[in-house]
TrEMBL record:
This is D-3-phosphoglycerate dehydrogenase. The chain holds residues 1 to 310 of 534 of the full protein. Pathway: Amino-acid biosynthesis; L-serine biosynthesis; L-serine from 3-phospho-D-glycerate: step 1/3. It catalyses: (2R)-3-phosphoglycerate + NAD(+) = 3-phosphooxypyruvate + NADH + H(+); (R)-2-hydroxyglutarate + NAD(+) = 2-oxoglutarate + NADH + H(+). It is an enzyme of class 1 (oxidoreductase). Catalyzes the reversible oxidation of 3-phospho-D-glycerate to 3-phosphonooxypyruvate, the first step of the phosphorylated L-serine biosynthesis pathway. Also catalyzes the reversible oxidation of 2-hydroxyglutarate to 2-oxoglutarate.
């Protein structure tokens, strides 16, 4: 019988073409739990992005599953230990969208520094407002990178060309590696106190959730601008709203939220918050790379071949 590949979120057409050649490709809305549980029962492979929760219940329902593929980086929506315990291989596409995610963080940082979104909205609504939208330059400022992994490094390399001073907090990185990149490794507290801009590039883990909470936001340099294009919940949203209200945080660029999808958040009420709906990986290039990478990995897994790191 032709193996069934169940696709629970949007996948690049090029990847669908590759898969359709060899498999019975089926689609389901991964956020529709009942449909997902029914669909996965007949699947040999399941492909998701970030919106589909692949937990023990889904893995149990998918008794014939051989591989779960995450068309992107973060694996926080997949219960990897539960999959491993059932002999289900989990693969992702760890480099597919890192350039796009780093570029999105920079886009948000610049938009916050220059009021791009509010000024554009005001102008389109008929208001030519120049003095209301005076921003700040990035050159000469201290930029704190929280998490100096693949995306954090790309972000830092690009921010260096703006003439910034770069510091980073990442206890798992060697200082020599950071120094090579022109980045000084510091403790979290020092990063909070010194940074004019902070950008977060961490995975969501029990250790990182709420890493920037009320206590940490009390330590920031007044007027700091914060970007989170990594995962919702790394910054405590209520604490961020409080710091924005007090003016201690001058602005925030947010691509990710504790609850997704969402169209309602107290953070959306702030003019100095630029918010995008989890678009970090939403480029043609990243989607092609992620889709083709997982299509290749799924094919290898279903053929019983070794699946190398993508
Ligand atoms: P990575 O694994 O290469 O880097 C993560 C870094 O965080 C590592 O260097 C690690 O040492 C560090 N880290 C882990 N725990 C830490 C802690 N407690 N304190 C400080 N540092 C810690 O991952 P990456 O490719 O850079 O991606 C980072 C995250 O970005 C992903 O896990 C994903 O959640 C998110 N992401 C979001 C989008 C988007 O669309 N917005 C796109 C891609 C990735
Ligand atoms: C990721 O972790 O790769 C991102 O969140 C992008 C996505 O899945 O859309």
């Amino acid at each position: 019988m032709t193996p069934v590949v169940l696709i629970a979120e949007e996948l690049a057409p090029a990847a669908l073409d590759v898969l359709a050649h060899d498999y019975d490709v089926r689609h389901v809305d991964g956020t529709d739990r009942a449909a997902l549980l029914a669909g996965v029962a007949e699947a040999d492979a399941l492909i998701v992005r970030s919106a589909t929760r692949v937990d023990a219940e889904v893995l149990t329902a998918g008794s014939g599953l051989r591989v779960v593929a995450r068309a992107g980086v973060g694996l926080d929506n997949v219960d990897v230990p539960a999959a491993t315990a059932r002999g289900v291989l989990v693969v992702n596409a760890p480099t597919s969208n890192i350039v796009s995610a780093a570029e999105q963080a920079i886009a948000l940082l610049l938009a916050v520094a220059r009021h791009t979104a509010t000024a554009s909205a005001a102008l389109k609504a008929g208001r030519w407002q120049r003095s209301r939208h005076v921003g700040v330059e990035v050159q000469g400022k201290t930029v704190g990178v929280v998490g100096l992994g693949r995306i954090g490094v790309l972000f830092a390399q690009r921010m260096a060309s703006f003439g910034t001073r770069l510091i980073a907090y990442d206890p798992y990185i060697q200082p020599a590696r950071a120094a090579q990149l022109g980045v000084r490794l510091v403790g979290l507290e020092e990063l909070l106190r010194e940074s004019d801009f902070i950008s977060i590039h961490l995975p969501r883990t029990p250790e990182t959730v709420g890493l920037l909470g009320e206590k940490e936001l009390a330590l920031v340099k007044p007027g700091v601008r914060i970007v989170n294009a990594a995962r919702g919940g790394l910054i405590d949203e209520a604490a961020l709203a409080a710091a924005l209200t007090e003016g201690r945080v001058a602005g925030a660029g947010l691509d990710v939220f504790v609850t997704e999808p969402t169209t309602e958040s107290p953070l959306f009420a702030f003019d100095n918050v630029v918010a995008t709906p989890h678009l970090g990986a939403s480029t043609a290039e990243a989607q092609d790379k992620a889709g083709l990478s997982v299509a290749r990995s799924v094919k290898l897994a279903l053929d019983g071949e070794f699946v190398p790191d993508a």
